[in-house]
Amino acid sequence: MELTPLSAFGWEFFGTAMLLLFGNGVCAAVNLRTSAAKGTGWLMIAFGWGLGVFIGASIADPTGGHLNPAVTIWAAIAGNLSWSLVPAYIAGQMLGAMVGAGAAYLAYKQLFDHHDEAIPGGIFFTRPAHPHNGWNCVTEFIGTFALLAFIAFGPSGGELGPLSYFGVAFIIVAIGLSVGTPTGYAINPVRDLGPRLMYAFVLPFKNKESAAWNYAWVPIIGPLLAAVAVGLLSLAV
């Protein structure tokens, strides 16, 4: 199927919305007071996000299931995607991330309503373990570099497709388990920014934590720098 900007937007929107539904959903499950999964921990979150990537990417297979501007920018630099489609990809990803965060809220609304404390922002967006944004940017760069290197040079050989989504899901789990805790491993600008915007300005929580805007640039810049690095490396090898 030949992609148009409209179809690229649509598939990336749909796939990214599903990613955030499952990703924010597992974070809600682990953190909300009346959830049966309350306190089940980091392993649960890592696998929930990995499965969310598999589901979202599989749905967005017509576009290669990017779901992530870093993947899209890498693909364009490497010559695997026309630059003319990049704006449609990223617009779909951004709006999909926002809608997916809203869907996770609706799925858990009763549990949010019965959460006695401030609604944790970490259900929707990432927070670092320590407030040193330079090093946090390095961590985000490393995690995203690992993801993109697996896509570019792993078994798929840079060609994303149905079978490769299994591998991508497991590299997401591996990143979360191995290098994810310093920053919460956004490794995807829209996965962080879309839900952060929803939490801060749209979702009707009466008691919220700070949206931590002084940190919000880190999950954008770190992954995009990794996209450029892996893209240039793809051209060089």
TrEMBL record:
<feature type="transmembrane region" description="Helical">
    <location>
        <begin position="215"/>
        <end position="236"/>
    </location>
</feature>
<keyword id="KW-0813">Transport</keyword>
<feature type="transmembrane region" description="Helical">
    <location>
        <begin position="42"/>
        <end position="60"/>
    </location>
</feature>
<dbReference type="InterPro" id="IPR023271">
    <property type="entry name" value="Aquaporin-like"/>
</dbReference>
<keyword id="KW-0472">Membrane</keyword>
<feature type="transmembrane region" description="Helical">
    <location>
        <begin position="165"/>
        <end position="187"/>
    </location>
</feature>
<keyword id="KW-1133">Transmembrane helix</keyword>
<feature type="transmembrane region" description="Helical">
    <location>
        <begin position="6"/>
        <end position="30"/>
    </location>
</feature>
<protein>
    <submittedName>
        <fullName>Aquaporin family protein</fullName>
    </submittedName>
</protein>
<dbReference type="GO" id="GO:0005886">
    <property type="term" value="C:plasma membrane"/>
</dbReference>
<feature type="transmembrane region" description="Helical">
    <location>
        <begin position="134"/>
        <end position="153"/>
    </location>
</feature>
<dbReference type="Pfam" id="PF00230">
    <property type="entry name" value="MIP"/>
</dbReference>
<dbReference type="GO" id="GO:0015254">
    <property type="term" value="F:glycerol channel activity"/>
</dbReference>
<comment type="similarity">
    <text>Belongs to the MIP/aquaporin (TC 1.A.8) family.</text>
</comment>
<keyword id="KW-0812">Transmembrane</keyword>
<dbReference type="InterPro" id="IPR000425">
    <property type="entry name" value="MIP"/>
</dbReference>
<dbReference type="InterPro" id="IPR050363">
    <property type="entry name" value="MIP/Aquaporin"/>
</dbReference>
